[in-house]
């Protein structure tokens, strides 16, 4: 996993570095990473034309020292200062290496011939949006498809609030950030403006991060793989009480997600006509009561606010539950240990009594609040999926394409997560791995796959992940 740091955490890490290295500066180190990335994007210095858009603060200073490095390599570098205040030593260094200053009109006129724009306007302290004429320039970069290299974060984004509205911002081809990822780099919609993100090591250390971004290797390493002596019960028995007369397909979708994610045994305990539909589509599913290691409940129940008895019947087993959809409107104050709630933004807003816009603007705070209030792990579904545990730790699942945003995806996801709970996995990783593997499947099969068809691609994906984990665990051969 990779840590994700807020602006305040980065500032604290920088201050700790300055305290330990009096009289030294981080700017030269940061700039060297920016200039190296620029040269890589250009494919070399010969004949290259670079326009550096410079803001008034340290972000501008990083850009100016990078401009110096590029000009010293023979790149034709133009500097547009977007504010009266400028970083003096950086300005002198860039000018001394041959970088030339242009005004706004000249910068916009030169844009069609530029090979690269370096966005060094605003850093992690910037607020959402850009003022004119920088906003028009940023839009022109996109319209003309000019490659943009952002320093730390694309200007116009809020580093900490990826869900906030961004009326105008740069859309980067590549972003070089320092010390750790920021929320805007990994969460939509802001992440869509960051391009490829490179975390540069400049010597600072973020202590005690509480937000993490999962990686593919995490999914591969943690996905449960049966051993040579495992039987169906060892892989977990999952009970599903999903679907209703109005929404019978929810039961089929939940069971499909569970089986193709590797459940050893699935019991359908939903009301008629759901069991008949489930067994017709999936004949390995059994019907009726029996022992289970976990439940999936709530998907397709309908009649929100009138399902307390149905939920209470499943809570009586004491097994952990995946609580989806209509079950989220019935949550009691006491739940079995290890439960996972899977709301989307609207459902989470209702759980917390907040506006949906507030949840979207600050999803980390919102899912943390729900985890603490209800004492469960919360998987907030959406374009970016967050898993929050009681106590504050949040893990961001792997991203997937927008094709998964369709009716029924949440039902199959609940089944996938339920399979992992039944296999003995804790709620945190059941949520992270469930959301991530669905995203990986969608990325491997782009297009409008219905959720049940996408679920049927999971076995091949899980087999690949198991191979990756096995290869990663093998000792590497070393030469003499």
From TrEMBL:
PANTHER family from the UniProt entry: ATP-DEPENDENT (S)-NAD(P)H-HYDRATE DEHYDRATASE (PTHR12592:SF0), ATP-DEPENDENT (S)-NAD(P)H-HYDRATE DEHYDRATASE FAMILY MEMBER (PTHR12592)
Oligomeric and partner information: Homotetramer.
Keyword NADP: yes
Annotated GO MF terms: ADP-dependent NAD(P)H-hydrate dehydratase activity; ATP binding; metal ion binding; NAD(P)HX epimerase activity
NCBIfam families: yjeF_nterm
Positions of (6S)-NADPHX binding: 58-62, 123-129, 152, 250, 300, 344, 411
Record text on cofactor binding: Binds 1 potassium ion per subunit.
Pfam families: Carb_kinase (PF01256), YjeF_N (PF03853)
Sequence ranges assigned to domain YjeF N-terminal in this UniProt record: 10-210
Organism: Propionibacterium australiense
Documented EC number(s): 4.2.1.136, 5.1.99.6
Source organism, top-level taxon: Bacteria
Cofactor entry: K(+); Mg(2+)
Catalytic activity line of the entry: (6R)-NADHX = (6S)-NADHX; (6R)-NADPHX = (6S)-NADPHX; (6S)-NADPHX + ADP = AMP + phosphate + NADPH + H(+); (6S)-NADHX + ADP = AMP + phosphate + NADH + H(+)
Binding-site list for AMP: 410
Protein name stated in the entry: Bifunctional NAD(P)H-hydrate repair enzyme
Family designation: In the C-terminal section; belongs to the NnrD/CARKD family. Belongs to the NnrE/AIBP family.
InterPro entries, A to Z: CARKD, Nnr, Ribokinase-like, YjeF_N_dom, YjeF_N_dom_sf
Function of the protein: Catalyzes the dehydration of the S-form of NAD(P)HX at the expense of ADP, which is converted to AMP. Together with NAD(P)HX epimerase, which catalyzes the epimerization of the S- and R-forms, the enzyme allows the repair of both epimers of NAD(P)HX, a damaged form of NAD(P)H that is a result of enzymatic or heat-dependent hydration.
Annotated ranges, domain YjeF C-terminal: 215-465
Matching CDD domains: YXKO-related
GO biological-process terms attached to the record: metabolite repair; nicotinamide nucleotide metabolic process
Residues the record lists as binding K(+): 59, 119, 155
Entry keywords, A to Z: ATP-binding, Isomerase, Lyase, Metal-binding, Multifunctional enzyme, NAD, NADP, Nucleotide-binding, Potassium
């Amino acid at each position: 996993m990779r840590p994700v740091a807020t602006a305040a955490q980065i500032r604290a890490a920088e201050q700790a570095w300055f305290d330990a290295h009096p009289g030294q500066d981080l700017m030269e180190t940061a700039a060297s990473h920016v200039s190296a990335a620029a040269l890589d994007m250009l494919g070399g210095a010969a004949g290259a034309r670079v326009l550096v858009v410079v803001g008034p603060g340290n972000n501008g200073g990083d850009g100016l020292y990078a401009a110096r490095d590029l000009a010293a390599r023979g790149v034709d570098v133009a500097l547009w200062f977007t504010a009266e205040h400028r970083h003096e030593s950086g300005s002198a260094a860039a000018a001394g290496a041959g970088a030339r200053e242009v005004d706004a009109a000249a910068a916009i006129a030169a844009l069609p011939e530029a090979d690269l724009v370096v966005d060094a306007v605003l850093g992690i302290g910037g607020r959402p949006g850009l003022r004119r004429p920088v906003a028009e320039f940023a839009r022109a970069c996109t319209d003309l498809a000019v490659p943009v290299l952002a320093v730390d974060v694309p200007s116009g984004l809020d580093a900490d609030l990826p869900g906030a509205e961004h009326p105008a911002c740069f859309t980067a081809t590549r972003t070089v950030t320092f010390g750790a990822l920021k929320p805007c780099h990994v969460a939509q919609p802001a992440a869509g403006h960051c391009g490829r993100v490179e975390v540069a090591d400049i010597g600072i250390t973020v202590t005690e991060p509480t937000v993490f971004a999962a990686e593919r290797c995490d999914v591969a390493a943690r996905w449960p793989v049966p051993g040579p002596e495992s039987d169906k019960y060892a892989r977990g028995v999952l009970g599903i009480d999903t679907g209703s007369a109005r929404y019978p397909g929810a039961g089929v979708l939940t069971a499909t997600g569970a089986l193709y994610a590797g459940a050893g045994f699935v019991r359908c305990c939903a009301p008629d006509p759901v069991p008949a539909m489930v067994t017709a589509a999936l004949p390995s599913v059994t019907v009726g009561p029996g022992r289970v290691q976990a439940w999936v409940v709530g998907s397709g129940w309908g009649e929100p606010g009138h399902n307390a008895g149905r939920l209470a019947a499943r809570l009586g087993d004491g097994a952990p539950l995946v609580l989806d959809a209509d079950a989220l409107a019935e949550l009691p104050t006491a739940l079995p240990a290890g439960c996972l709630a899977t709301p989307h933004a609207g459902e989470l807003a209702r759980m917390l009594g907040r506006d949906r816009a507030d949840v979207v603007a600050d999803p980390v705070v919102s899912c943390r609040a729900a985890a603490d209030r209800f004492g469960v792990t919360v998987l907030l579904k959406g374009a970016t999926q967050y898993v929050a545990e009681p106590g504050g730790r949040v893990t961001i699942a792997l991203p997937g394409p927008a094709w998964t945003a369709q009716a029924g995806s949440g039902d199959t996801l609940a089944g996938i997560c339920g399979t992992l709970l039944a296999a003995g996995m804790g709620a945190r990783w059941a949520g992270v791995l469930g959301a991530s593997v669905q995203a990986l499947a969608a990325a491997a099969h782009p297009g409008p796959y219905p959720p049940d068809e996408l679920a049927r691609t999971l076995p091949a994906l899980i087999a690949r992940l198991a191979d990756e984990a096995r290869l990663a665990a093998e000792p590497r051969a070393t030469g003499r």
